[in-house]
Each structure stands twice: as structure tokens, then as C-alpha cells.
Design a protein that fits this description.
393 residues, alpha/beta, DHBP synthase, Rossmann fold, seven-stranded mixed β-sheet, 15 helices, GTP cyclohydrolase II activity, manganese, EC 3.5.4.25
Length: 393
């Protein structure tokens, strides 16, 4: 299923258009039509009712719900996903409240600063939902996604959503959802991509210390950073003043390889070669605390135990209950932006690293290969990296 990028979705929403937002395959695995209340076109409810066919709901922020005294629909919410329905409403100026124009009136009144609790009759024909304060970072539902999207367009935190159903009454998924999208020429995004977009947009990097760092490879500058997204402490080792286009090595910590010079991997050798390259050509190394491809030191050692029993580095991670690679490069992207680096010549053999950085808005101008010799202890490890993880070795 082809998905569009978040920026394109925000542009469509600001034009008043509806978009499709899909959630995870392991959750509802459904698509909802989403429109931002402040920007939506006059035919939005009619379009949703005619073509979406699902229940039309009005997600709002907790502040709006509190101001308008939109109380919970039930005392004990037993909904599978905890959707926070309030009592249904109609605006006091409606008649039956069910027509498309009257539901539009009710929806728009939710963001009218003149509206008061007495502006709505209860029950009614529009169903407000209350979004979690931190949106999709707190709950990966359509309620939160739609309110987040409203905020990202600069609108008041309110939206309309409607599940998409097939003509036979079943839920549109997969191919049928794609066909619906093509039929109506709609932008389609995923909640998962919205989560990553927010992470990239909201990660705040702060430089805490800057010192000279003489090493056996040359004289560098080291800057220590903290990040708002975690308690991690990160460092950048820099040769000279950062340039707009820069040579960059993003290196995930490897205690066994970097410190104890383990021959079970090629991490220590890659770090050494990177420092030699940066000393000669300029650039920086961003050192991330992502031991064992993100599973941590003890779990990496447990994976080594499995490898000694016949597993490879990928199957060992999976046997321990992890994905093959849990690393994330949002903090690295944030550091690059903080230092004014827009284009990167990346010292790496890992295509996934390229894709992740580009997702966070870093332009990869070229790859600089970082090949180090194998040894008798890491031959299988290197083969797995090439054959199973797609490293360019």
C-alpha cells in the first residue's frame, strides 16, 4: 500500500480536503476519513456519510471538552481500544440534527469561541471524542492522529473522522482501501508515520558541554548533548567548524568492540577508520548510546550466547523477542540540524541508516564506504550483515 508523506497530508487538510489515515495492522487495521474542523469544506459531512459510511465523530482536545462540559458517554469505558466517547450532541440551532448541514453546524460550533455548554443539546447526532493530551505519542488512535494533524496545520484542536466501509458493509482494508483512495483521489498516510514525524519535529537537542579532545588519531572537539526525547547522553566528535555539507559517521555504541576491541564484530575497527577519515577530510562522528543494535548490553551478551549455540546475529535477536535492529536516528538528525549540517556524506555500509536519516529531513548526498578486514571470529557476523541485513559490504 502506497502512503503519502505527512507534509503532503497537512497541505491537503489546510485546503479543506479530507484525507485517509490508516492505523497499524496489529490494531484495527482500518482507514478513516479525516478532516480538520477549522479548514473543512461545506460538503465534508455529506462526503463522509455518502462514501465513508462509518460513524462520523468529532475528536477534540481535552480543553475543548472541558470548556463545553462534554462528559463521558459511559461511566465505565469497556471499549477495546479505550476510545473516549462523550455524550452525543446537536447544536441548539438544529432541528433533528442529523442532516449533513446540521452536523456541520454542530461540528463548527465546537471550535467557536462563543460556544458554551448550553450551546448544545444532549444527546444528539454528532459524537465528540476526547484526544489524549500528548496525541499519538500517548495513544496511537485515529482520535489522537486527527487532533495532532489539526494542530500541525495551525488550526484549533478539533477534527471530523469517519471509518471507511465497503459497499457491502464490511470495513475497507488493503486493496479495497487503496481502490477507495484512487477513486476519490485522496492523500493517505499512516499513524505510524505521523508518530515518526512528530518525533523528528519535536526532538529538542541541547548542547551541555564543549571541550577540546586530543586523541591518537588527531585533535578534535567534543560536544555533549542531551535530548528531550530520552535520558540519553550523546556526543559529537568534530574536526573543525561544521560545514553545510559534511562527512558524517553515525556510530552506535559497542562496549565490547569500541572499548575492549572484541573481534566478534567490526565496530571498533569502523570507529577507528572513521576517526582517521575525519582527521584527514574533516567532518564529525555522532556517537549514539544504542548498544547491540538497540537491545542493550546484557541482551547483546545473551544474543552472543545464542550465537555460540548456532544462531546468527539476526536470529538471535529475534529469538530474544526483538526485531533485528531497534536503532533509531532521530537524535542524530536533530544534532546535525543543530550544528547546521544540511547535506551528509555518510560513512556507512547500512542502507537502513540512509533511509532513517532521510525520513528525519537529512539529505544524503553520497555514501562513503567503510570496509574493514574480516577476521576468523567475525566472518559469520559479517556474512549475516551482508546477506540478511543488506549491508553494502
Amino acid at each position: 500500500m502506497h502512503l503519502d508523506d505527512i507534509e503532503q497530508a497537512l497541505s491537503e487538510l489546510k485546503r479543506g480536503k479530507s484525507i485517509i489515515v490508516v492505523d497499524d495492522e496489529d490494531r484495527e487495521n482500518e482507514g478513516d476519513l479525516v478532516a480538520v474542523t477549522e479548514w473543512m469544506q461545506d460538503n465534508t459531512v455529506n462526503f463522509m456519510a455518502k462514501y465513508g459510511r462509518g460513524l462520523i465523530c468529532a475528536p477534540v482536545s481535552k480543553d475543548i471538552a472541558h470548556h463545553l462540559e462534554l462528559d463521558a458517554m459511559v461511566k465505565n469505558n469497556s471499549d477495546v481500544y479505550g476510545t473516549d466517547f462523550t455524550v452525543s450532541i446537536d447544536h441548539v440551532d438544529t432541528t433533528t440534527g442529523i442532516s449533513a448541514p446540521e452536523r456541520m453546524l454542530t461540528a463548527r460550533a465546537l471550535i467557536d469561541e462563543q460556544s458554551q455548554p448550553t450551546s448544545f443539546n444532549r444527546p444528539g447526532h454528532l459524537f465528540p471524542l476526547i484526544a489524549k493530551d500528548n496525541g499519538v505519542m500517548e495513544r496511537i488512535g485515529h482520535t489522537e492522529a486527527s487532533v495532532d494533524l489539526a494542530k500541525l496545520t495551525g488550526a484549533k484542536p478539533a477534527a471530523l473522522i469517519c471509518e471507511i466501509m465497503n459497499e457491502d458493509g464490511t470495513m475497507a482494508k488493503g486493496d479495497s482501501l487503496q481502490a477507495f483512495r484512487e477513486q476519490h483521489d485522496l492523500v493517505m498516510i499512516s499513524i505510524a508515520d505521523l508518530v515518526e514525524y512528530r518525533k523528528a519535529q519535536e526532538t529538542h537537542i541541547e548542547a551541555k558541554a564543549e571541550v577540546a579532545m586530543p586523541t591518537e588519531y588527531g585533535d578534535f572537539k567534543m560536544i555533549g548533548f542531551t535530548t528531550s526525547s530520552s535520558r540519553d547522553e550523546l556526543v559529537a566528535v568534530i574536526k573543525d567548524k561544521p560545514r553545510t555539507t559534511e562527512n558524517v559517521r553515525i556510530h552506535s555504541s559497542c562496549l565490547t568492540g569500541d572499548i575492549f576491541h572484541s573481534q566478534r564484530c567490526d565496530c571498533g575497527e569502523q570507529l577507528a577508520e572513521s576517526m582517521k577519515y575525519i582527521e584527514e577530510h574533516g567532518g564529525m562522528i555522532i556517537y549514539l548510546p544504542q548498544e547491540g543494535r538497540g537491545i542493550g548490553l546484557i541482551n547483546k551478551l545473551r544474543a552472543y550466547e545464542l550465537i555460540e549455540q548456532g544462531y546468527d546475529t539476526v536470529s538471535a535477536n529475534i529469538a530474544l523477542g526483538f526485531d533485528e535492529d531497534l536503532r533509531d536516528y532521530k537524535d542524530a538528525a536533530a544534532i546535525l540540524k543543530y550544528l547546521g549540517v544540511e547535506n551528509v556524506n555518510l560513512l556507512s555500509n547500512n542502507p537502513t541508516k540512509f533511509q532513517s536519516l532521510e525520513k528525519y529531513g537529512i539529505n544524503i548526498t553520497k555514501r562513503i564506504e567503510l570496509i574493514v578486514p574480516e577476521n576468523e571470529h567475525n566472518h559469520d557476523y559479517m556474512t549475516t550483515k551482508k546477506n540478511k541485513m543488506g549491508h553494502l559490504l
